[in-house]
Amino acid sequence: xxxxxxxxxxxxxxxxxxxLGPVLLRPFLPSDLPLVRQAATDPYxxxxxxxxxxxxxxxxxxxxxxxxxxxxxxxxxxxVIADSAxxxxxxxxxxxxxxxxxxxxxxxxxWVVPTxxxxxxxxxxxxxxxxxxxxxxxxxxxxxxxxxxxxxxxxTAEFAGFMQEALLHEWERINDVQRDVYAYALVRERWLTRGxxxxxxxxx
Length: 204
Fold this sequence. Notes:
Layout: E1 17-20, E2 23-26, H1 33-40, H2 45-48, H3 57-72, E3 76-83, E4 86-97, E5 105-112, H4 121-136, E6 141-146, H5 151-159, E7 163-174, E8 177-187, H6 188-194, E9 201-203
Parallel strand pairs: 5-6
Antiparallel strand pairs: 1-2, 1-9, 2-3, 3-4, 4-5, 6-8, 7-8
Helix pairs in contact: 4-5
């Protein structure tokens, strides 16, 4: 079994392609401007990400370049969520972030555009990144934070095996308001014991 090793996370990081079920996860590309344009029209995505709330092509390109830069600088792995049948068309984004990696933990955030919701695409994407984080990177603990009202996102987390740990009061500032969030976590040792390994294809 692979051991946790901080040297794996030295910059620059290479964002791989991951395939699981109906989903392909891949790096952001300059051709993903339509995805950023769609995301910018959603009332919630720009509030919790760096997607621009007022879209322009220049702003969209800047967003994509930031995602690419985050990997090059070693901050994490920003993925586009795409349908494996049409990998060029982005459906959302998912980030595996390494700000706390020296403590053996990483955080995950995800979003999908409205037209892709209700199809479990985010759930399959999350499962794929969990397998990558545990099998390839050997990260001991993954966690994510979800507002209590966001039932769909909570179901996505549970679909990927995350368990709710706590309600954190006024944890995150969203639209100038302190918001409560649920903390969800998944631990590598428990995941390995459960026997969920070997289900994600990592493509160079």
